[in-house]
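Provenance and format

Records in this collection were gathered into a single text stream. Each protein contributes a sequence line and a token line. The two records reproduced below are adjacent in the stream.
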Amino acid sequence: MLLTEIDALYKKTISPDTQFYDGSQDKNEFNSCIEILSARIGSLPQKEIWFLEIGAFKGLWALALKIVCAHHGKQSHYVTVTWISHDPSNQDIFRTEEVYKTEGLTFHLIDADSRLEETLRQVTAIQQRFDFVFIDGDHTFESVLQDIGHYGPLADEYLLFHDINTRDCGVSKAIQRSGTPLNICISYKPDLMGIGIRDCRVPAEPVKRRKILGLF
């Protein structure tokens, strides 16, 4: 039901491509992650959920969050650091913003380089803590490491990463170098994308990773 609603809203807002979400996600990985997020959101006592995304593309996660929160009788608040001037073709994100604002929901788009201290200050001026933080910006080792250092400490529930097992990018190496243990790894295709989740409630020492289709 949730996934059907997300696809319908994506088609209405962005494009008819809900198989690959215009190349941004593996559908099976995304669906599995949404189910995990939905379970955690449903378990939280608060009615307002804050989500920070570093590097949004079109707005899939924001649309999904809105639907998941509504399903649990909660209100979604969304903030993204997305460097539009660095990727001027990413205009769909503004249609996602309009969906939020039409419904009176919080949507903040910070058009800036996530690596800058000033950008971090802009984020924390909006909200000091977030329930969920999703890092999916510049995938170079140095940039991911900086994003983890800046935004990882802001997460209270889950710190999420995209492309944890994609070759030729620095995501996995940066996660390891930062000492961030992943509790859940979602992957359906070797060497392609993958979503990693750090459960912030669990102590930071190494933990056994829950694997979905165990391609690790």
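Adjacent record:
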Amino acid sequence: MATPVTPDPGSGSRTTQTPSPFLTDLEHALLSVDHVKAGKIVGKACTPGSPFTCLETLIVPALENIGRRWETGDVALSQVYMSGRICEEIMDTMLPPGDPRRVENPKMAIAVLEDHHTLGKRIITSVLRAGGYEITDYGNGISVDQLVAQVTRDRVRILLISTLMLPAAIRTKEAIARIRAAQPETKIIVGGAPFNFDAGLWKEVGADAMGHTASDTLELVKQMAGRA
């Protein structure tokens, strides 16, 4: 059985910083879907050349707060999605895709197994990229055979698997078992409706952890990246 990953502030490779005083302003701009204002706030708050400090003190806390507000019903899912997209765009200007500081993170990928929903995966991908991580999107409707082949070919170290329906969630057990046999060091996070309905299902399929929300998944990835 895989060992679950639990929050451990000291395990990550980045140092936890005091939140920025601009945090509330950025949250308001993101929830208003104001790209221009959000960009100006980040530009004013963050020192050029220090993208990870900006991530830890401003961008990630803002996304985490918005994620928690969605859990309590205070904001809409569309606002979570757009907040992630805006922050992803901002981070792409500060830390472009392919930047060595992104690439040095463990190889990471995400896929929707045997289903074709896209919104949940899109939100998580945006939040992780806004968090400074490179992540390969394997797409939707991927089969177990395809997923195992791609993960082993790419030497993925952190894999996120999303499902919408229970049969696909159950099929993750086979995928995880085969990936573990070929590549035991790969850490696997699962998520989606079936895992939210059954709190113990992620353990049954052999995953390392289950992401309830995008902000929750970001925290899990930060821990795993620090341990990889």
